[in-house]
Amino acid sequence: MSLTVEQIIAYSEEFLDYNPSTGVLIWKKPPSRNVKIGQLAGYRNKDSVLMVKIKGILSQAHRVIWIMSYKEEPPQQIDHKDRDPSNNRLDNLRASDKFTNQQNTIAHKDSSLKLKGVDKSGSKFRARASLSGQRVCLGTFETPEEAASVVRRYRIKEYGEFANG
């Protein structure tokens, strides 16, 4: 079960305050006796995403914030520009879809080179990226920095503001 935009707007107008410059969501009226006025709303889940309970239903705070701010259905995905899911400043949130949201990531934790799109290929370094779900080889280079530079330029060209890593 999920709440409608109208239900979230009505609830937030009564119970929640949001500061767009700090990204902080607080209770302006306690929804239960365990909550105090001015207390931070919600809790951070294991992925550091702020979750808030509205009428007994858990919602991601950035989606609630989007509705509070724009009074409309949030997009399929909301991307945190700085990749920090705990940073809900309005200027850090942008409309996205699953594909573009995935572009705003860093190198995998298990990447030995810690450079997105770069891996060792014999004694050289291979630069690769994805385009429309397909792997694209951008060439092999003498240094990992050269390969990373090619990947970065490609990602900026293809993904614009969502390019990262």
Mean pLDDT reading: 86
Compressed to H and E, one letter per element, the order equals HEEEEEHEEHEEEH
Task: Indicate the radius of gyration in whole angstroms.
Answer: 20 Å
Q: What does the largest sheet look like? A: 3 strands, antiparallel
Helix content: 25-40%
Number of strands: 10
**What separation lies between the terminal Cα atoms?**
37 Å
Q: Could you tell me the strand content as a percent range?
A: 25-35%
**Tally of alpha and pi helices:** 4
Widest sheet, order of strands: 3-4-5
> Which residues form runs of ≥5 with pLDDT under 50?
none
Overall body shape: elongated
Structural class: alpha+beta
Secondary-structure map with pairings?
Blueprint (H helix, E strand, L loop, with lengths): L4 H11 E4 L4 E4 L15 E2 L5 E5 L2 E4 H10 L6 E4 L12 E4 L1 H6 L14 E4 L2 E8 L2 E8 L2 H16 L6
Antiparallel strand pairs: 1-2, 3-4, 4-5, 6-7, 8-9, 9-10
Question: How would you describe this structure to a colleague?
Answer:
This protein has 165 residues and is of the alpha+beta class. 26% of the residues lie in helices and 28% in strands. The protein has helices at residues 5-15, 61-70, 98-103, 144-159, and strands spanning 16-19, 24-27, 43-44, 50-54, 57-60, 77-80, 93-96, 118-121, 124-131, 134-141. The strands form four sheets. A three-stranded antiparallel sheet has the order 3-4-5. The protein has a three-stranded antiparallel sheet with strand order 8-9-10, covered by helices on one side. Strands 1-2 form a two-stranded antiparallel sheet. β1 (16-19) and β2 form a beta hairpin. The longest helix has 16 residues, at 144-159. The two termini are 37 Å apart. The mean pLDDT is 86.
